[in-house]
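HOLO CASE FILE
Compound: 2'-deoxycytidine-5'-monophosphate
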Amino acid sequence: MSAQKNVPGGAVVCRVAIDGPAGAGKSTVAKAVAARLAIEYIDTGAMYRAVGLKLLAEGIGTGPADAERRARMLAETEIDFTDGRVYLDGRDVSGDIRTDEISRMASACSALPAVREKLVALQRAMGERKSVLMDGRDIGSNVFPNAEFKFFLTAAPRERARRRFLELQKKDARISFERVLADIEQRDYDDSHRALHPLVRADGAHEIDSTDMCADEVTELVLGIIRGGPLA
Ligand code: DC
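Model generated. Tokens follow.
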């Protein structure tokens, strides 16, 4: 890697931020890039999903009426992301968080200041002393505004919906494409219009439109930029 940062204790860390809307292929590319760089991958969306899962399980809503119960619950909640798995209060919930209902709940709870405050603090701590690649919505703009490398990965909404549809169809053959597209458009709108740290292209981020690219091509493009190749 061509740019790194010295941290107290003599270690050298590099933070890579990959942000973008749902279904742009962030996690596939992020996992592959992190593996090739031999640094840790952290899926911050999974952390919001884990909070959404707990809210649902405890019957706590995202409206003002439940603010106190939410605050109590958050204070007692432990979220961790290690070795590609997300843990909620010590339990691996990586499989349980990949449903449509949890997608909507994660998006709704990610607009709440108390939730963002808690998860952003955890994410910053994770990237404090070791090199990490994080994907999400606000990594380059808010979590690590000084990240050594920032990317904003997009794709046309219909293409993102097509990818998500193929994925979801494996679990539920009755799923409709129009429904998946409508969900993606709603989440795009909500994630980019919330008051706190909305989805934006961070200053200095390399924008990549993956509509007509496969994951391997995007991975190579990202690695080329990180390694200071001709596209940097
Ligand atoms: O990437 P994902 O679809 O798993 O993310 C789920 C939700 O979490 C998404 O709708 C917005 C929210 N999120 C966020 O607000 N900030 C992040 N850094 C990551 C995800």
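CASE NOTES: The longest strand covers residues 149-154. The chain has a mean pLDDT of 92.
CLOSED: yes
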